[in-house]
Design a protein that fits this description.
The protein is α+β, with helices and mostly antiparallel strands. It has helices at about 15-30, 60-70, 70-85, and strands at about 5-10, 35-40, 55-60, 85-95. It has one domain: 2-Layer Sandwich (Alpha-Beta Plaits), CATH 3.30.70.100. It contains three helices and four strands. Helix 1 packs antiparallel against helix 3. About 15% of the residues are buried.
């Protein structure tokens, strides 16, 4: 069953973050993932959560998602993201309850 990585990102250095946007997609694809959402306009509907920029990635399963985010293939992009932005990231199992 699919798994999702959801990131709330606040960019502090837009110029450096542009490099992240180039570096990350090849590593995502290598682990069978794809971007479902990458930035875009936000409209808060309920609650007080006010994300700055959202990214939602879909992977074939939890193992693939975990493998990607901890991979050597993603390490440089991750370093660039961490240097240019503050992120909150969750991994969600897409397996619906029985």
């Amino acid at each position: 069953m699919s798994a999702y990585i959801i990131s709330d990102i606040e960019i502090h250095d837009a110029e450096s973050f542009e490099r992240y946007k180039v570096l990350s997609p090849p590593s995502v694809a290598k682990y069978g993932g794809r971007f479902l959402v990458r930035g875009g306009a936000l409209e808060r509907q309920e609650g007080d959560w006010a994300p700055k920029r959202l990214a939602v990635l879909e992977f074939p399963d939890m193992l693939a998602a975990r493998s990607w985010i901890n991979s050597v293939d993603y390490a440089e992009a991750k370093r660039v993201r961490q240097a240019s932005a503050t992120s909150s990231i969750v991994l969600v199992d897409g397996d619906p309850p029985a």
